[in-house]
Hints:
Blueprint (H helix, E strand, L loop, with lengths): L6 H18 L3 H7 L6 H7 L18 H14 L1 H21 L2 H12 L5 E4 L15 E5 L2 E12 L6 E7 L9 E7 L5 E6 L10 E12 L3 E2 L5 H37 L1 E2 L2 E2 L4 H30 L8 H28 L10 H8 L9 H22 L1
Helix pairs in contact: 1-4, 4-5, 4-7, 5-6, 5-7, 7-8, 7-9, 7-10, 8-9, 9-10, 9-11
Amino acid sequence: xxxxLTDEQRMIKETVYKWSVNELGPLQEKIDEEDWFPPDxxxxxxxxxxxxxxxxxxxxxxxxxxxxxxxxxEEMSRICPALGMTYGAHSNLCAHNIHKNASEALKEKYLxxxxxxxxxxxxxxxxxNAGSDAMSIRTRAVRQGDKYLLKxxxxxxxxxxxxDTLLVYAKTAPEQGAKGISAFIVEKDFPGFAxxxxxxxxxxxxxxxxxxIFEDCEVPAENLVGQENMGVHVMTSGLDSERIVLAxxxxxxxxxxxxxxxxxxxxxxxxxxxxxxxxxxxxxxxDMYTRTEAARLLVYRAADLAQRSPRGGxxxxxxxxxxxxxxxxxxxxxxxxxxxxxxHGGYGYCLEFPVQKLWRDAKLYEIGAGTSExxxxxxxxxxxxxxxxxxxxx
Length: 394
């Protein structure tokens, strides 16, 4: 096994981190306190070439791999987790899924502006009554001549308030359940589309999140992604890479919380010496490092497998490995950030110290992209699938 990054992967990692320190670092206080989204964020991302990492060069992308995209969100999330998540929603949930599943005409129309940062992307799946049970969505899409009319509500949509291009899931044949879902590309100016409200969150502030309304939203028939009633394939084919890439955000937060804690424990003195000399603090730092590195290796392994098994599909090693990667990464980040607060003591609970922001931000990845409970169900299902099949044959 080769644990070394390629020159290109290492360049992405270093470039994004330095850029994040210089461009996002000075804005952190404003972003978090005001829940402020920098309007030129995507333009600046485009300038360093990270919006189309997994997109073919003919659409303006880099033609890179899932690990490169994971590295980008990891390094951005060390400085600004909220914008790291916003970046992931644009580049992976929206652009990457369009690249994998849309027609050539749709890719030529929508991908170049997304890669150049001229348009902002989002994916709209979750609904008020369909979170973990994504197959129970109620948004309807009815074909009328050369267009579809979409009617329904979406909730918790990252980039929703600012998105220009949205990948939206709706039921075209409700009686068929999961087999009656279709995917569409919706533009914000399509008649019948509206942002109902921007949601207020305790963490990931600066990453705009919205409730969206589709009131007989008119979508051209050619904006159907894939085939009608085959949207579940579009949905599930992107879930593995989504989980892996977003897991990179958790790794970035854990790594930064550890860095803060190391520096603080060396500088902070109690009883006449740095608290880094106390065995209880040493144990915390050692455990924080060990868990972070273990999670990082699992995430990187899953990203490598995703690149070698791009189609994924139901009942694969990639399904369980991707779920395991984000499960471990997300819970590790929450735990590491909690330990960082403890090491910082009262200062860690004060808003002027950055560890409290990481602490608030980290929790979301245990909820979004499938909760920790759903991830465990996926892993267990895949582990027992073959055993159940053998039992049924006896």
